[in-house]
Structures are given as C-alpha cells and as structure tokens.
Amino acid sequence: MTAPRRPLALITGASQGIGAATARLLAPRYDLVLGGRDEKRLETLAGELTEAGPVAVRTVAVELTDDDALATALDGIDRLDALVHSAGVGELGTVAETSAQTWRHQFDVNVVAVAEATRLLLPALRAAGADTGADVVLVNSGSGLTARAGWGSYAASKFALRAFGDALRAEESGHGIRVTSVHPGRVDTAMQERVVAHEGGEYDGSRFLRPESVGAAILAALTATRDAHLTDIVVRPQG
Fold first, then answer.
1. pTM for the whole thing?
2. Which of these is catalytic: 30, 151, 154, 164?
C-alpha cells in the first residue's frame, strides 16, 4: 500500500530565528524546502530534522534579492502546499537619518523579494490549492500595524507587506489559497539583539517572545480546517 503524499512547505529565512523554529514545528507534518543565505546553517538544520524523523528536506541557499538566482532556485517546484515568508531585515533610524539606500534595501528584502518569490511559486501553490488547499504565511511585525518614532522605514515596509498580503488574499482565494499575516511583538532573535543595541539598552531575551511561540502561531494558521481562514494573527509577549 502506497503511503500518502506528505505536503510540502517552503520556508524563507530558515537558517535561524523564527524560520528555523517554524521548520522544526512543521517537520512532523510537512516535507520541507529551507531557504536562506547561510548554507552551513541550513545544512545543519536539515541534518537535525532528518535525523529526528521521516521528513524529506531540501536546502536552497540564495540571496532573495537576486532575481535570477531566486528564479533558478525555485525552478522545478510544481506543487507547494505552504509558503512561509520568514526572511526579513530590520534597519532602524529616524526619517532624518535614514538614507535612500536604507529605504530601498528594506523594501527590497521585506516586500519586493516576498512578492517575487510568491509570484514565481503561484503555479505550484495553485496546483495544491485546487486539490487540498494551500497557504501563504507572511511573518510581519507589530510595526506593520503601528509606526513609531525611529522605526519609519522598517514600519513602512511592513505596512506594505500587509497590503501585499491583503491583495494576494483577495486575488487567490478562488484558487484555494489562504493568506495569513502574522504580527509578532518583539522576539528573542539576533535581529532583536541588534535592535536593543541600537536603542542603547541591555539585552534580556526573557522579556521577549520565543521564536517557537511565533512558529506555533504559523502552525495554527496552516493546520486550521479548510472552512477557517486565519487572516491576521497578532502575538504579543506576556506581561
């Protein structure tokens, strides 16, 4: 008797933080494509996951803002059940001190690369959507809901990412594709360490969300029964 096909999920930013935590949570249910820039970290995570259970894992080390390299890396994926966009950058500064280069880089990584990867993978997502359904999850931020002083360019990119998700949801619902925006508060990651250093504070990771907690919210969106659509999830640290 042939074993049922395991669904396939692609996670960007999978080499660390929320992306890696999500991969660990999805591995019991999904075969995985792990995307990121750090090939060594991706391979280490892939080895950990395959050793822990019966999961097929493929790694894709690619710079998401390199359009040609991205297209090559994603070529050959003809069916995709879940796409989790976890990669992103967070460069802070006031409007007065933020250069055009920073604005462009932040939008390039946080919005344009997400849109392009999604566009390239839409045929694969639609193939799954027409059968059992498919999901796109955008790891956004609390800054995608509220902009604060010193966070202008980052918040603007995350507001744009939310708009992208809203448009994609409206366009692709007829193809069986759900789109979820996840808005975490501060998360204990390397990026958060840089943020706290920028703010001149002392880092205490226990004050923040664990990456696994955000991964659990992503898993909830992916595993919701198909009559339900978790369009927006806000996750805040307790206390």
1. 0.94
2. 154
